[in-house]
Design goal:
The complex is a heterodimer of chains A (314) and B (514). By secondary structure, chain A is mainly alpha-helical. Chain A has 13 helices and no strands. The longest helix of chain A has 36 residues, at 87-122. Chain B has helices spanning 2-14, 42-48, 99-110, 119-122, 152-156, 237-246, 259-264, 293-302, 305-312, 333-336, 343-352, 372-384, 397-406, 422-429, 444-455, 459-476; strands at residues 22-27, 56-58, 64-66, 69-74, 80-85, 130-137, 140-145, 187-193, 197-202, 215-216, 219-220, 228-233, 251-253, 268-283, 359-364, 389-394, 411-416, 479-492, 495-496, 500-501, 504-505, 511-512. In chain B, the strands form 7 sheets. Chain B has a 6-stranded mixed sheet, with helices on both faces. In chain B, strands 1-12-9-8 form a 4-stranded mixed sheet, with no helix packed on it. Chain B has a 4-stranded antiparallel sheet with strand order 4-5-7-6, with helices on one face. The chains are: A mainly alpha (314), B alpha+beta (514). Chain A: It is found in: Cell membrane.
């Protein structure tokens, strides 16, 4: 098992290196000078040049990359160009905010979508199936920012039940914090449930056609026993992989939701940093996202044998 | 249903979501730093404005008036300024402001280690040099300059300089690093939750400078009328709109296209305020096509400026073809003249300039709070009428800044932040392009006039300089000034007072109905 984990982490290394180089180069190819943006309208060319030297931007790109990657290996992700904050604590604190929302949303979406998908498969070609599949298709087709704004207008403005903007950490105020999370979580749950319902349905349909299910039915087992006891474990495997992918994707990619609901998460930090050409923060965010993707998928793979014992970690 | 509604309402109140009697305001980005005049942007300046004060400050008409100073005098040679401090000024830590504090602050600002944004304006590398600062007695400070300057007081009052705000030496931590701003303003620093909000609380011991009962720019009556201010970081315009409509936000900048909706609203109001910033077409006079003054004049005459401004500003702006703002004390009759809207004359100038249908590109960006894109679109349509081949290139703001700084453009639809003295406004556009490619106009005569405006202290003589400059600009047309910037803000109906000044939040003398 430990060898498997080490192997997987070693396999991830080239991914992280490629991501680092790509991000490092691409952000520098985009026009826009962080030093000029930082100093504003009144800066003279001399001041901008001085700031570029101070930030190390006057060095060649390979030289900058070597300095940055060397520092990263020692745990120093650099400091933000915009506000001089150390990047790693900044990224971690913002990541925790995003993770809080994403993990709750993915768990809730899975709890809703997996049974719904299985029921749709069980009742294939019935009205239940049609309604569930139709609903899922509609849900996954709605852009999240639009859905978020609709929910915000309805629950925040029309009904006045939920706060329309702001963020309170659950650590500071449990009830208040949860209230601020309801709308962003609801938006994500609605959208991701659509994806997962279709996945769960498809994988359950495949399993229900297998001989061992026919055998179980022939033994006289009830439909619920067939479905939950025999079909579920095998059908859940592919959905579990999908949940892992969604989780990894969302952990660094809910910038739109965070912007609409004014949540200080990792996605918003990344977008703001891109507009401000804050190179160290952009690099730190994307490297962190790549790492979290690797870790989440590793955890998913390690847990896979729980649902499908045929798959062994080694 | 009623039960559910009641439950929702109770839940909200239990969670303490409803704020106290603070003014809650949205701003599009977080604070850069709390250190006045060091690592700043427009939003940072807006927060700092409430915390610190300088010796002097701008009034609405661009005049510089005493703020922490009770009075100031200039020596006959124009090189020594003596500031008499108000005796009633206290820092937020309760200590009284003294002349020694002023000397300490100025020495700190002039120390390169502070990284003050405006250092170049006072250390001799730009125009003037502060050669001496000394405390004459506990309430008198004298400052000497290397030469007379008309803009010395104006420069130190600028937002970009952190208003050269006086902070208590206790603002610096024991290890020499900046801790927090302990100023003298009507609100004091309270809390900064990065990425979320900045909270300032009311300074109970605040005493306004001499005033006639009304706010006047950075001076005048400055009473804090609420318990505090919460600046919330909200980058998304739709969320700001929802926040204003729901009453969570008390005020914020809104897009001009929301004016009709807010005017009809029962809960919200629109606040429109002109500032000294400029919306203009910034022209590259060294571009092969744009180099001919005749072509630039043809462009200016082909634009129906009144129509263009009305459309680009949603009816809020008024055409002003001068670099001098229309509410400046220097906005004379000469400043009000502009080239006529005359298509026939424009066509003639165009033909005389030898224009042969070469493409002309207008760079624009789509930031919601500036008219860059709509102004470019309207101008494109107007300029096509005289046969100009105009295209629009839409860029993100950072790229636009890059293009302007490198001089790589033909026309940029640009907005420039307020500068209250015309000479300071000139310095954004005028100068040697070989040394600074971002400048617009390098006419030797214009440079000479700008330098004269920097040095001349007499108001009447300055007016003559500004008028001559304007007439020269109409001849050479290095850029086309459209209108003074307009702040369009939304606010809840319960907000009383004027929450914006020169594009920055200004929340003293602003209250909320109970």
């Amino acid at each position: 098992m430990i060898r498997f984990i080490l192997n997987r982490l070693l396999m991830a290394l080239p991914t992280v290196v490629i991501v680092s180089i790509t991000v490092f180069a691409l952000i520098r190819f985009i026009p826009g000078d962080p030093a000029a943006l930082m100093l504003g309208d009144m800066a003279t060319p001399d001041q901008v040049a001085g700031m570029r030297t101070e930030l190390g931007l006057d060095k060649s790109m390979p030289e900058q990359f070597l300095v940055w990657s060397g520092n990263v290996l020692t745990g120093d992700f650099g400091r933000s160009i915009v506000n001089d904050e150390p990047v790693l604590p900044l990224v971690v604190s913002r990541f925790m905010v995003s993770a809080e929302i994403v993990i709750i949303a993915v768990v809730l979406a899975s709890l809703i979508a997996v049974p719904a998908g299985m029921i749709a498969a069980w009742r294939q070609n019935s009205w239940t199936d049609l309604v569930l599949v139709g609903t899922a298709t509609v849900l996954l087709s709605i852009p999240t920012f639009w859905l978020g704004l609709l929910l915000l207008l309805f629950f925040g403005l029309k009904l006045g039940w939920l706060p329309v903007l702001g963020y309170v950490s659950i650590g500071d105020n449990v009830v208040g914090g949860l209230l601020y999370l309801v709308l962003p979580i609801m938006t994500l749950v609605i959208h991701e449930a659509g994806v997962l319902i279709r996945m769960a349905r498809a994988s359950t349909l495949e399993v229900l056609r297998l001989d061992y299910i026919t055998h179980a039915r022939a033994k006289g087992l009830s439909e619920s026993a067939v479905l939950w006891k025999h079909a579920f474990k095998n059908a859940f495997g592919p959905t579990w992989t999908m949940i892992g992918l969604i989780l990894g994707n969302l952990l660094g990619g809910i910038a739109v939701i965070e912007t609409v609901f004014t949540i200080p998460g990792l996605g918003r930090l990344m977008v703001d940093s891109i507009f401000q050409r804050d190179y160290p923060v952009i690099q730190g965010c994307l490297l962190f996202v790549a790492l979290s993707y690797v870790v989440v998928n590793l955890i998913v793979d390690l847990l896979y044998p729980l649902f499908d014992p045929r798959v062994v970690a080694e | 249903m009623k039960t559910i509604l009641l439950a929702g309402t109770i839940l909200m109140s239990v969670a303490g979501v409803s704020a106290a009697r603070d003014i809650v305001i949205a701003q599009s980005s977080d604070l850069r730093s709390s250190n006045p005049g060091v690592n700043r942007d427009g939003n940072t300046d807006g927060v700092i404005l409430h915390i610190v004060e300088g010796l002097v400050g701008y009034a609405n008409n661009g005049e510089v008036k005493p703020l922490l100073a009770q009075s100031f005098d200039m020596s006959s040679d124009g090189q020594t300024y003596t500031f008499k401090l108000r005796p009633d000024v206290k820092f937020h830590n309760g200590k009284t402001l003294t002349a020694d504090d002023v000397v300490w602050n100025w020495n700190r600002y002039l120390d390169p280690a502070t990284k003050w944004t405006c250092l170049k304006d006072f250390d001799g590398s730009a125009t003037l040099k502060v050669t001496g600062i000394k405390a004459v007695d506990t309430t008198t400070v004298s400052m000497t300059l290397d030469k007379p300057s008309a803009v010395f007081l104006g420069l130190m009052s600028r937002p970009e300089c952190g208003y050269t705000g006086m902070i208590s030496p206790d603002s610096i931590a024991a290890d020499g690093t900046f801790d927090k701003p302990i100023g003298t303003g009507p609100f004091k620093w309270d809390e900064w939750k990065k990425g979320e909000y900045i909270h300032l609380s009311k300074f109970d011991q605040y005493v306004s400078p001499t005033n006639d009962g009304k706010p006047d720019g950075m001076v005048g009556s400055k009473r804090p009328l609420v318990d505090g201010i919460k600046f919330m970081v909200i980058p998304d315009a739709s969320t700001v709109k929802a926040g204003l409509q729901s009453g969570v936000l008390d005020t914020a900048e809104i897009s001009p296209d929301l004016i009709p909706e807010f005017e009809k609203s029962e809960t919200a109001q629109v606040i429109i305020s002109q500032n000294n910033g400029k919306n203009l077409f910034y022209i590259q006079t060294r571009d092969p096509v744009m180099a001919k003054p005749g072509l630039r004049r043809a462009i200016a005459m082909a634009l129906d400026l009144d129509e263009l401004v009305a459309a680009a500003s949603n009816g809020t702006g008024k055409a002003n073809g001068s670099m001098v703002s229309s509410d400046s004390l220097y906005f004379s009759e000469t400043q009000q003249t502009r080239l006529p809207y005359d298509l026939e004359a424009a066509k003639k100038e165009l033909a005389d300039s030898g224009y042969k249908g070469e493409p002309i590109s207008i760079i624009a960006n789509k930031r919601g709070n500036v008219p860059s894109f709509p102004a470019a679109v309207i101008a494109q349509a107007m300029l096509q009428q005289i046969g100009l081949n105009v295209q629009i290139e839409v860029l993100d703001y950072a790229t636009q800044v890059d293009r302007r700084r490198s001089g790589n453009y033909q026309i940029i639809s640009q907005s420039v932040a307020p500068r209250l003295d015309p000479a300071l406004m000139y310095s954004f556009y005028v100068g040697d392009k070989d040394k600074n490619a971002s400048l617009m106009w390098d006419s030797p005569k214009a440079i000479e006039l700008m330098k004269a405006a920097y040095a001349e202290i007499d108001t009447a003589k300055r007016q003559a300089i500004f008028d001559e400059f304007h007439e020269l600009m109409l001849q050479e047309m290095p850029g086309i000034f459209l209108y003074d910037m307009i702040d369009v803000w939304g606010a809840s109906k319960s907000l009383k007072g004027q929450p914006v000044w020169q594009s920055n939040a200004r929340l003293w003398e602003v209250s909320l109905d109970k």
